[in-house]
Amino acid sequence: MAMSPRRRARVIRWVQYAVLVVAVAAFLVFADLATLRDVFFDREVFAEMWPDVIVVALRNTLIYTACGFTFGLLLGLVLALMRLSSVGPYRWLATGFIEFFRGVPALVVFIALGTGVPLAFPGREIPGGTLGIATLALGLVGAAYMAETIRAGIQAVPKGQTEAARSLGMPASRAMRSIVIPQAFRIVLPPLTNELILLTKDSSLVYLLGYTTATLELAAFGREVLNQEKNLTPLVGIAICYLLITVPLSIVVRRMESRAEKAR
């Protein structure tokens, strides 16, 4: 006798649970838990990392990410408006910028700004030192992605909103600034938050610029402790710190998406 679709789905679900339980049990039986604990969860190494991993590395990562995201968001808004402009050169410039920085790895951008600018312009440096270069590099990469997100959000706003504003005598620029853009940002807020998560992880490339004790971010800090201790525990420590940033942001994104779905 054939099973009903509901019962079949229930059986498949319980089989998946059983496979998961067997996999966990096999790991606990065959893995060398003592060695794993010593290599990845050494309490003495964790103690050695504290509190610098929070007050220096995590703080710097947050600063680099926040500065890069702010710059990228502003530049992305400008690029999005240029992409939607009726002036051809504006569209061409914005399209070229977006395609270039979406196609080039962030690592190349960091290296180019960190070493290429001093070579191309002897005696000149990007203001702000490591923070300035990190802000510019993260902002340029983030802006290329955020520009397309913002452009899609602007185009998703019903045209009737703009037509209603124009019928009341509102100039096109003011209608865009006061009506269209605020609604567009409500639409694109979840994907922009996802971009913030990506920039948080890209901030690990700051180590390519060189660093001092004061400018260490999470990835560079982990490498330093790893070289000193010859133990993989620092990698677990910085992974936890990254999760402290990204998991709450992911929860915020899910809640915003759920709220948007309910609003529809």
TrEMBL record:
<feature type="transmembrane region" description="Helical">
    <location>
        <begin position="234"/>
        <end position="253"/>
    </location>
</feature>
<dbReference type="Pfam" id="PF00528">
    <property type="entry name" value="BPD_transp_1"/>
</dbReference>
<protein>
    <submittedName>
        <fullName>Amino acid ABC transporter permease</fullName>
    </submittedName>
</protein>
<feature type="transmembrane region" description="Helical">
    <location>
        <begin position="61"/>
        <end position="82"/>
    </location>
</feature>
<feature type="transmembrane region" description="Helical">
    <location>
        <begin position="103"/>
        <end position="121"/>
    </location>
</feature>
<keyword id="KW-0029">Amino-acid transport</keyword>
<keyword id="KW-1133">Transmembrane helix</keyword>
<feature type="transmembrane region" description="Helical">
    <location>
        <begin position="127"/>
        <end position="147"/>
    </location>
</feature>
<keyword id="KW-0472">Membrane</keyword>
<keyword id="KW-1003">Cell membrane</keyword>
<feature type="domain" description="ABC transmembrane type-1">
    <location>
        <begin position="58"/>
        <end position="253"/>
    </location>
</feature>
<dbReference type="InterPro" id="IPR035906">
    <property type="entry name" value="MetI-like_sf"/>
</dbReference>
<dbReference type="InterPro" id="IPR010065">
    <property type="entry name" value="AA_ABC_transptr_permease_3TM"/>
</dbReference>
<feature type="transmembrane region" description="Helical">
    <location>
        <begin position="205"/>
        <end position="222"/>
    </location>
</feature>
<keyword id="KW-0813">Transport</keyword>
<dbReference type="InterPro" id="IPR043429">
    <property type="entry name" value="ArtM/GltK/GlnP/TcyL/YhdX-like"/>
</dbReference>
<comment type="similarity">
    <text>Belongs to the binding-protein-dependent transport system permease family. HisMQ subfamily.</text>
</comment>
<dbReference type="InterPro" id="IPR000515">
    <property type="entry name" value="MetI-like"/>
</dbReference>
<keyword id="KW-0812">Transmembrane</keyword>
